[in-house]
Structure formats: C-alpha cells, structure tokens
Amino acid sequence: MAGTTAQPSSRPRSWWGWGYADAHPDDAECAAMGALLPGTLPRPLPVPRVRDLRIGGPAAEPPASLAHLVTADPAVRAAHAMGKAYRDVVRALRGRPGRIPDLVAHPAGEQDVVDLLDWAGSRRIAVVPYGGGSSVTGGVEYRGDAHDAVLSLDLTRMDRVLEVDAHGRAARIQAGTPGPALEQQLRPHGLTLRHFPQSFEFSTLGGWIATRAGGHYATGRTHIDDSVQSLRVVTPAGVSASWRLPASGAGPSPDRLFIGSEGTLGVITEAWVRLVERPRHKASASLAFTGFRAALDAVRAIAQSDLRPANCRLLDAGEAALSGVRADGSAVLVLGFESADAPVDGLLDRAVALARSHGGRPGAGGGGRAGDAAVAAWRSAFLRMPYLRDGLARMGAVAETFETAATWDAVPALIDAVRSEVGAAAAKVTGYPATVNCRLTHVYPDGAAPYFTVLAAGRPGDEAALWDDLKAVADEVLHRHRATITHHHAVGRDHRPGYDLQRPEPFALALRAVKSALDPRGILNPGVLVD
Length: 531
What we know:
This protein is an alpha+beta fold. The chain is built from 15 helices and 19 strands.
C-alpha cells in the first residue's frame, strides 16, 4: 500500500541554534539563567543575523540540467553551514560559522542524487549529505580547502512513506522523511517505527541510519540498526540495493556497511524499516535514591531482568535538580512501560519492587504511579533543554553534553573520573567552579550509556576553543576507561580523534579501502570517519 506525503511545517527554523526560531529564550530569560552561573556575561550576545555574515558568491555553478535543484541563496547556505552542537552555536553567535557551502541542492528523487554526485565528482566539489541538520558532532560541515567548492545535499524533499506492508509490519520510506512526517504517514496503518531521539522533530530517517542513532527507548530495540530491513544507497561507484529480508547469514551485511557511515561511502535514499503496533497500554513511575551507587545497582538489576522497560532513565542529583524533578540531593530513576496488546502494570510493579530492594523510594515526584509528576517534569525538561543550552551560550557560558557507553564493571569509576577531571579542568581554565551532571539514557544487561552535562563559565570570544579543551580531557578519560567515544550521536569530525583510537587498525585499513573503491575522487563528506 502506497503512502502519502505529509505536510511540512511552515514554522521557521533557527539558522544558528536548535529547533524553531520562536522557541528560544528571550533576553530576559537568558540573563536570568546566566545570573545562576558565575563568570557569565553581563548581558546576552545578540541573536546572529545572516545579513551580518560575509557570504561571497558560489565557487561553482550547476549545469542547466540541475539548476532547478540547486540554490545559492545566502540564508539557505548559512543554515546548512553547521550542525547544532554547542561549538556550532557559539561560532554562529560570534559570526564565525566556518566554511559556508557554495550551493545547496534539494533532490526530489534518487536519480537527482545520482546526477548531482556525477556532476560534483567531475568538478572536484565536496558533497556533504544533509538531513535535518541536527548533528552535534560536526557531521554536516566542511572543514579544509582540498576541494574547489562545497555542495550541501539536502534530502528533505524526499519525504514520503512509499509503501507499507502491514502484514509484515514494514515500510519503504524515503531517507529525507523527518520524524513527525514519518509517524504521521504511518498512523493510519496503526503502526510506528518507535524511534524517538531528542532530535525527533528535526532529524530524518536517513540521518538516523547514517549516524546509527539511538532513540528514546532505554532497553530493547533502541538503535536504528535493529529496525533496518534493507537500504538503497547511491555511491559514486553505483547504486547499492540490498534485499529485503527478515534475517540473513550470507556473509558480511551490505546494510551494516552503510549504517553509521555518515555519508562518507554513499547517500542513503530509502530504506525498508521494521515497524511495530502503536502502544495502547502505558504506565510510569519514579523512585528516589539517597545514594547514586545504590541507584546504579538498581538499574543494573532491572536491565538484567526480563522486564525490558521502555524508559529506564537514572538522573544523578544534579541532573534531577536541573530537570526540575527533585532538588533535595536525591538521584531519581524514571521508569516507563508500554505495550500494544496487554496491560503493563504488572511489569511496572516488578521493576519498582527491584528498585525498592536497592533503596529506591517510590513517588520521587510526589505523584501517583500513572501520572507521576517527576516523569512529566523530566519529559518537559528533556525537550526544552537544547533551547536553554543556546540561551546559556548567549551568556558566554559553556553548556554542552556528551555521551558514551561502557560495561557495568567500568561504569562507576568512569562516571567518577569524568565528574572530577572535567570539572577540575573547567575550574582551572575559567577560574570558576563547574557543574558536571550525569544521567543514564540507555541500559543493557552488560552495561550502560552515561550521558554528561557540563555547565561552566566561558572564555569570552573563545568559547569554542574552551569547549574543545574540555572535550579533549573528557575524551582521554573515556579512552582510559575503554568507554566508546559515542553511544548514539555519531563520530562526525569532532569525535574523530577518539574514534581513530578506538577502532582496530585492520578495520581502519579495510574502511579506507572501501572509501577508495566507492568514492575514488573523495567527494563524500571529506574528513568524516576516514581521510
């Protein structure tokens, strides 16, 4: 059954910061947040304007056959120059967004992508695939000067659910489909992809696949990897189209080659993805813990049970206070269960019992089980946090996050080391104390994914370099504890040094060979994953 095109939102997006332009904190709210953090600016930096940037003419001109797909509009080019990481935001605030693409292309179908890559390859033009632009690792910008021009390849016109197999619970979907449009088109079939990252409103299916994105769900099928059934990928060497199969043992998986390849090996144009029925039964609760170590033990016990909660988020005391969940020094565990075919109250009761056996106190938010106020407060803060980060950036503060994953035996010491060493480094270079909070976003029987928030005074005019210094400290801690450089945000350019240390050298050799074979002219997202 064929799908239909969802109506795109007309609400204007911010070119320099997260999300919608009208959702950012105003000057008064920025100043109020800055007053809570020592060492910030006396007043917020002005919201940057595209017209204040020095944007020259494009260094390339498309042929007449492709001109209808390509624009050199300065505002469009500026909006495609960077992702949405803290260092991207502060560079925009300081009027230093980096290399602005010469052109932005909006292909309407796969043949357009083929034609654009053919042209770019013949002209030494770098091509940076672009979905929703929500990258927080430098994955959608060009760095360097090895190419004659830069083309941002925006796939968001390819936004349709093309086919739904309700019997097999799968759908064929174009890669440029953003989260809301994807779910809107699946809703009439009673199905859902069940992939809800924090960037859900603004990111696309192709972006999720290219970055091996993790969704909201804390256990079970949360990475996009497990939802991919087959792919179509345009490479400079030809189109790769894998078979749609429930499973296969036929050698290395062709799909796994492109999942997580971040646009360096090819451009994902569509995918068959596995779906599930929309949930009809839900239940949630929260529990408070006096000690964070006891809370870690509780989460491990739940993860190693057969309960598989949809939400199992552990907030340390600082994160609980920052989220408005609880401010008495307690850690808070947020639990949630859902199902399409059966009530989940019994599963929640069992998880709560496990948590209580490790010292958890139910009702951390003061509400009942089904409508716990802590759960609602956390969900609201989760969606609002990127906007508040941008507000703090306008006050000259460092406000950024990074995430990782490690085995349970390494998790406690890893969290302690990140808190102490990153905090000490921030205090040393700024002269002010820093806050380093932690939450667990995803949990597994054999380990967990800690997610850290860093709040510190900035270095006026040099905020991006300051964050780079702090990130280098964090990366060294992760490497020392054999924790991954990223659990679900991709490598991009910012995590590249850590990725180079993490991957085995024979694999790096093979990846470079694949890059050379599929992209012999080196035009696809140069500098990401391999040189």
